[in-house]
Structures are given as C-alpha cells and as structure tokens.
Amino acid sequence: MIFWDTSALAPLLIPEPHSDAALDLAEGDLEMVVWWGTPVEARSALARWARLRAVPLQSLEEAEFLLSALQEQWIEVVPTDAVRDGAEIMLRRYDLRAADALQLSAAVRWCEGQTRGIRFATFDERLGGAAYREGFTVVPA
To answer: What topology does CATH give the domain 2-139?
Structure first.
C-alpha cells in the first residue's frame, strides 16, 4: 500500500514527464490510499488543463473515466478533527500549503503515526521533504 498525494496521482491521468515513474509505482500498488480531498484536487488539475487547452478533449475524458475508476477502488482517509489538528501542526512544523498539510496529516493518521516503512508517493519536493522528515519512505526516490 502506498499513500498517494495528488501530484503523484495526476501523472496517471494525463501523460506528463512523471507518468512513467507514477505508472511503475501504480503497477506494484494493489491498494492506493488517498486523502478525502484528492478527487477535488485531481479534478481541479483536469479543469486547469482543459481551460489551458493543454490536453486534447479525448484525453481529458479518458482521464476523468480513469479517475472515477480509481476512486471506486482506493482507500480514502476521511476528514476528521484529528486530521485537521494534525494539519495545523504540520503547517507550523514545515513550509507547506494548507492542502499539502492535510495530505500529510491524513497519511500520518492512516498509518496511526507508524510512518517507518510506509511509502508516500509525491512529486512535490516540499511535501516530499516534510513526509520524509515525518518518517515516510518517499517514492519515487
């Protein structure tokens, strides 16, 4: 199991430079774990690509279909007071945006604080650094 940040999930949806690395991770991950807000962040990325006309319409439709299929299968960490409180701590501890602090806090709550040996997928350097300092194995390496 791998906890997937949206920055690692997005390259599965639309081809980009990190897509090969994300696909390699996904092939070995039978159960993706994500934060409750991940579908919103992913659809935000799809909408941005659509507005910029950076991706053909057919690719966007395929990406939306794949996101919906993944959403039916993944494990989702739901919003709780503990996740929110943990995110507030992460904001004081690390240079993170609010959504990233929620992602990291959700990952910590999911593994009940036992982060050693737990993989955290991200292509975001700041979030990856914070996840590493929390004890996660950040992938791809």
So the answer is: Rossmann fold (3.40.50)
pLDDT at 37: 97
Say how far apart CA 130 and CA 57 lie, in whole Å.
35
Q: Among 84, 82, 118, which Cα is nearest to 4's?
A: 118
Interstrand relation of 119-121 and 137-139 (parallel, antiparallel or unpaired): parallel
Which regions of 5-136 does DSSP assign to beta strands (E)? 32-35, 75-77, 119-121
Which 8-state DSSP code applies to residue 74?
A: S
Spatial separation of the C-alpha atoms in residues 11 and 133, rounded to whole Å: 24
Q: What is the pLDDT of residues 50-68, one digit of tens each?
A: 888 888 888 899 999 999 9
Residues near 53 by beta carbon (within 8 Å), at least 6 away in sequence: none
Domain locations in the chain?
2-139
Q: 13 is written with which tokens? A: 């949806």
pLDDT tens by residue, 84-131: 999 999 999 999 999 999 999 999 999 999 999 999 999 999 999 999
Please report, as a single letter, which amino acid is at residue 113. G
